[in-house]
């Protein structure tokens, strides 16, 4: 295997592991919280309500889980790019591994709701820190590794959900399944420290004090004789405010996407279908994840510069499905399957193309910082959509 193939494989595995722990652990936390609520119910009626749907985040406890899942990632992505350069990449990856491991252990041995939510928080911290760090890291390698990272993150949703379902369907408890999944942080460690082939000038353990603006070839202050060349580059690169043109469309895509996923999907039920309510919902989630995986892997085949087009199309999806919940005009569940798969395609394509064009259009001295800072876009969109999706979901349920 040549160096390019090793790095491509390494970033694919890093993307898989970074999002895999988050996907699997969140599903397990949901199941364990259901068990705890059932055991703590004061009456048979309470227990029946707690377990009847099996997949709906309707109680305040599950809303707290979603907030614990979103907010730590958002905070890390919003503030870390301004000081994360003081911590070498080797230390960052160890922190991601440690927090991912802690999330698995906390949830698997959880005996209280608070302990389960703390596990979700650790998973969110690991995912957020890992995403901004690995996106920044891609600027030190060949451009193809960004495609590998994107494909790996997309694969995490499909593979993580499938393996978790397969293990639990085979009779393993969520706790046992989580303990098996402790192999994921091990794979992340191996992928980063043993599979990637770093450039000779890359400093694995050195703290960088010169700030977020750094050259993408060497992790050291720029030489005096290069100042004229850098000035020319600075005129062409987008600064922090220039990143808004990337962050806003990405955030809007994810705002509409998670408004659909959190607020509408559970309500798109077709009683005449041969699939039960729970089965329809699981297929929605599966097809969404497959769509994300396909489009996040598409950078090797097609590149889309106008991400705002995908933002508009995703908002159209959200409006269409909201109206469909209200008036029930969609003919059957298979129509929704197509729309949800398309939703995943739009979200995944917006993500990977945003970072591709940031890496191409941002000046060399700011590229590393820009990749980290722009990662706040998707998390910001998700966080902003949550209150609206809860309100809309509860509104339709109350009717």
UniProtKB/TrEMBL annotation:
It is found in: Endomembrane system; Lysosome membrane. The gene is CLN3. PANTHER family: BATTENIN. Pfam families: CLN3 (PF02487). It is a multi-pass membrane protein. This is Battenin. Belongs to the battenin family. Residues 224-236 have a biased composition (Acidic residues). Its main location: membrane. It comes from Scleropages formosus. Gene3D superfamilies: MFS general substrate transporter like domains (1.20.1250.20). GO terms for biological process: lysosome organization; regulation of intracellular pH. Residues 216-236 are annotated as: Disordered.
């Amino acid at each position: 295997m040549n160096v390019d193939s090793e790095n491509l494989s390494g970033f694919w595995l890093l993307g898989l592991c970074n999002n895999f722990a988050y996907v699997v652990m969140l599903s397990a936390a949901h199941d364990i919280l259901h068990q705890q609520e059932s055991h703590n119910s004061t009456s048979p009626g309470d227990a029946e309500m707690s377990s009847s749907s099996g997949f709906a985040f309707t109680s305040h406890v599950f809303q707290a889980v979603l907030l614990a899942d979103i907010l730590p990632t958002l905070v890390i992505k919003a503030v870390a790019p301004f000081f994360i350069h003081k911590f070498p990449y080797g230390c960052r990856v160890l922190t991601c591994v440690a927090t991912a491991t802690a999330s698995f252990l906390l949830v698997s041995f959880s005996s209280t709701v608070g302990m389960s939510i703390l596990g979700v928080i650790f998973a969110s911290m690991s995912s957020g820190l890992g995403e901004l760090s690995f996106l920044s890291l891609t600027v030190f390698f060949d451009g193809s590794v960004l495609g590998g990272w994107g494909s790996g993150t997309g694969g995490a949703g499909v593979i993580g959900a499938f393996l978790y379902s397969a293990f639990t369907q085979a009779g393993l408890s969520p706790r046992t399944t989580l303990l098996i999944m402790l192999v994921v942080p091990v794979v992340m460690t191996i992928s980063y420290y043993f599979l990637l082939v770093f450039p000779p000038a890359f400093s694995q353990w050195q703290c960088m004090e010169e700030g977020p603006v750094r050259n993408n070839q060497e992790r050291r202050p720029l030489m005096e004789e290069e100042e004229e060349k850098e000035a020319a580059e600075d005129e062409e690169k987008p600064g922090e405010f220039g990143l808004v043109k990337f962050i806003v469309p990405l955030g809007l895509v994810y705002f509409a996407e998670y408004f659909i996923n959190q607020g509408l999907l559970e309500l798109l039920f077709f009683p005449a279908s041969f699939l039960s309510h729970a089965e329809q919902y699981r297929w929605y989630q599966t097809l969404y994840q497959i769509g994300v995986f396909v489009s996040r892997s598409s950078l090797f085949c097609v590149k889309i510069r106008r991400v705002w087009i995908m933002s508009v199309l995703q908002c159209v999806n959200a409006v269409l499905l909201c109206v469909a919940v209200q008036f029930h005009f969609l003919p059957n569940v298979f129509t929704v399957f197509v729309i949800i798969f398309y939703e995943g395609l739009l979200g995944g394509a917006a993500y990977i193309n945003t970072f591709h064009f940031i890496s191409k259009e941002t000046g060399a001295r700011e590229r590393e910082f820009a990749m980290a800072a722009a990662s706040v876009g998707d998390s910001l969109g998700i966080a902003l959509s949550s209150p609206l999706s809860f309100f809309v979901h509860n509104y339709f349920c109350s009717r």
